Amino acid sequence: MAGAASTDPRLDLDFVAPWFFGPAAENAAFVEELLVEFLRDHAAWRRAFHPEDRLASREELFADPAFLAARTKMRRELLRLSSALQQAVPFFHPRYVGHMTGDLLLPGIVAKLLTTLYNPNNVSEEGAPVTTELELEVGDDLARMLGFSVVDGQEPCGWGHLTSGGTVANYEALWNLRSAKFFGVALQSAAALTQLDPLIGGESRPLSNYSVWELVNLPVDDMISLRRDVLAWVTTRADPLLGHAFAEAVRRERIESLGTAAFFSQHRPLQPPQVVVPASAHYSWAKGMKVLGLGTANLLRIPVDHRMRMVVSALEEQLARLSEQQVPVLCVVGMLGTTEFGAIDPIHEIVALRGRFREQGLDFGIHVDGAWGGYLASIFRRPDGSRHSREEVRDGLAYFPSQSVYEAFAAVPAADSVTIDPHKLGYVPYAAGAIVVRNREVVDFLTQDAAYVFDRDDAIGQPPRRRQLANLGQYILEGSKPGAAAAAVHVTHRSLPLDSGGLGRILKLTIRISEMFLDSVAAARERLADRVRLCVPFEPDTNLICLAVNPVGNTSVAAANDFGRAVFARLKADGAAALAGREFIGSYTSLTHESMPAAEAARILAALNLDPATFVPVATDRRVLADHLFILRHTLMNPWFLAGNEGDFYLDKYWRHLEEVIDAVLLGRNQADRRTQM
Ligand SMILES: *Cc1c(COP(=O)(O)O)cnc(C)c1O
Predict the structure, then answer these.
(1) Most buried by CB count within 10 Å: which residue of 48, 283, 452, 550?
(2) Is 165 a pocket residue for ligand 1 (Cβ < 6 Å)?
């Protein structure tokens, strides 16, 4: 029963039906029942806390005019809000195929609303005795789904926690990796300053014997052991006062303490590290370089291929150059589902490449940005935790997963950390992103509690690691944070486990929808051949599909973009337009001249019959936007896209609508042309 997909994908809508609120609010009565039930529980909980205090308001107060006026005021403001919200974007509906958001799973909605009443703050166990534990369990769920080991007491043991979103998870990955990468150098400086020379690795090698280049190229796990070896040596060999002075010196010498500029000027000729991402990376990577002071000049972009995946041979060339010039590489980021195209980078090849560079003395972290695609790992996971074969995953599908995509997912456990967004393909309310880290021991490099940084033995006088982690604020970028988010994700994971029989079954359905969409393009292309050229610029790896359009006869990129924008204007969710009147709501993206390899640009322009000479590197005239290609983008995450009857599924409706829009735009243009000719 592997995969559990029925031959008619629409039958799986029956599986989906109980879990979502439903596009026509099908489950509203059930939600109401749940909310009332839990609201009562909450009220009872309040009343049960020191009932002897007799705090209850006097009966008469409820009839007091001022009291009633206050209520009227609140109601009026809430009514105002509720009516304003009617202008919100209907993410829940299958006619919404725009951004990375869809209908919400019921357990998450109810858990979030219910937990908000208790207002737990997951910054520490003190403010959230219940929900911090739920957050750590959510981290375990995600780690297991991705293939990391999470056995307490067995190293490496993964851990994960929630963030406000993928953006902050990406920042945190950089922060984690930097804290480990430059720790060895700080240790060595501190040892020199205090005239200590600890012996490392079974007392075999003095710390002073390491070169700076060697220290910045220790894999994370080795840096963890190095820290332990030094700690053990210092606590047994040095007197306590000297040990304390050494610990203080380590803190002072760290990059986090000196700041980037002072650290690198002190360790000349050591250079600031590079962060290597594909050209398709999310813009949060550039933001992260700014936030951490690493500098966007040190963000190195690797070109992508005809499937929008990182070109690993180009990565290899860059790494060889950096290795030769002795420029440290903080990390290589692979995308597990790009934001624009859903492309899956060959994580397995990045991992293999790291193995080869390690041998040459260049090491780097690997971070997987799976904000979008991370949850797709549930399709590959059997309920018993083992991994499905590619054939099993493929059962009921036509193309997914390609060999490369299958191997990419299988290689994720070799990465150091992963970003994954429950508020995207986990279908839970905002704000819920997450980071999962392969080896939780890295938190020793991060802690804000000075006592833990270096000078206390982990084994003595400290709670077990798991208890420490419950004080989340010590180890993460954020401070106060909603326990309600942890509750929402937790209940969702318990209700729909992260395997092929649970959430994976829903996600597999979205992949089938995307395959059906892709298959339907050929027929649409024929139908519209006398009016426009259609092209899917990059064959999708997952459940995002993009379409480029160009009117027949046009060869100019700028004119094609004008046309694309005019089409999109009728598929757009802008506050001003009455959303209710929209047939479908989509999104768009642009392929910039700058980010596209010439061969790919040539291929796509040819498919659209556009003249490559009209595609320019810089738009000189603001009105002639020819430095990019405008593209319609479809996020196909709503299972109800399959709802309907033969010949009238949403897929059919969408194509009919797109055809109408194209005709209307063409008609408008022809009329305008005639007017100018008159
Ligand atoms: C959405 C996304 C992000 C950012 O996540 P937010 O939750 O919007 O902060 C980062 N990377 C990728 C690949 C994404 O798709």
Answers:
(1) 550
(2) yes
CA distances (Å), origin 425, targets 125, 345, 433, 489, 542 = 28, 18, 11, 12, 12
- Three-state DSSP state, 409: helix
Closest-CA residue, ligand 1 atom 10, reads 166
In terms of phi and psi (left: phi > 0; alpha: psi -120 to 50; beta: otherwise), the region of 434 is beta
Question: For 106-136, how does the pLDDT look when each residue is reduced to its tens digit (9 = 90+)?
Answer: 999 999 999 999 999 999 998 899 999 999 9
Answer whether 542's CB lies under 8 Å from 373's CB. Answer: yes
Q: Which residues pair with 417 in a beta bridge?
A: 367, 437
Domains and CATH numbers, the chain: 132-180+264-495 (3.40.640.10), 183-253 (no CATH), 505-677 (no CATH)
584 neighbors 97 (Cβ within 8 angstroms):
yes
First to last CA, the chain: 68
pLDDT reading at 2 higher than 90: no
Q: How far apart are CA 243 and CA 456, in angstroms?
A: 10
Query: CB of 641 closer than 6 A to ligand 1?
Result: no
Largest pairwise CA distance in the chain: 96
CB 282 near ligand 1, within 6 Å: yes
* Burial 79-92, CB ≥16 within 10 A → b, else e: eeeeeeeeeebebb
CA of 502 to the centre of ligand 1 (A): 24
Mutate-to-test residue for ligand 1 from 170, 338, 339, highest number of ligand atoms within 8 A of CB = 339
d(CA 301, ligand 1 centre) in Å: 18
Kindly state if the Cβ of 339 falls inside 6 Å of ligand 1.
Answer: yes
Q: Which of the four pLDDT bands, split at 50, 70 and 90, describes residue 5?
A: very low
Name the closest-CA residue to atom 5, ligand 1: 166
Q: How far apart are CA 84 and CA 80, in angstroms?
A: 6
Q: Is the CB of 284 under 6 A from ligand 1?
A: yes
Q: SS3 for 520?
A: helix
> 374 CB under 6 A from ligand 1?
no
Nearest-angstrom CA–CA distance, 652 and 645: 10
Burial of 295 (0-12, 13-18, 19+ CB in 10 A): middle
Cβ–Cβ under 8 Å, residues 655 and 524? yes
Residues 303-327 have pLDDT tens digits of 999 999 999 999 999 999 999 999 9
Half-sphere exposure (CA, 13 Å, Cβ side) for 628?
14
Nearest ligand 1 atom to the CA of 337 is 13
| pLDDT at 204 (0 to 100) | 86
CA of 500 to the centre of ligand 1 (A): 24
Please name every residue paired with 631 in a beta bridge, in sequence order, or none if there are none: 589
**Does the beta carbon of 601 lie inside 6 Å of ligand 1?**
no
Residues forming beta bridges with residue 519, ordered by sequence position:
none
Spatial CB neighbours of 618, under 8 Å, sequence gap ≥ 6: 593, 627
The conformation of residue 638, written as its DSSP 8-state character, comes to -
pLDDT at 361 over 80: yes
DSSP state of 277: E
Q: Residue 630: phi, psi to the nearest 5? A: -80, 135
Indicate the DSSP class of residue 96. Answer: B
Pair of tokens at residue 488? 């929402």
Q: Is the pLDDT of residue 3 over 70?
A: no
Q: From 174, 275, 280, 282, give the residue whose CB has the most ligand 1 atoms within 8 Å, as the site to mutate.
A: 282
Q: Determine whether the shortest distance from the Cβ of 217 to ligand 1 is under 6 A.
A: no
Contact partners, residue 611, CB within 8 Å, separation at least 6: 555, 556, 557, 605
Distance, in Å, from the CA atom of 113 to the CA atom of 331, rounded to the nearest integer, reads 38
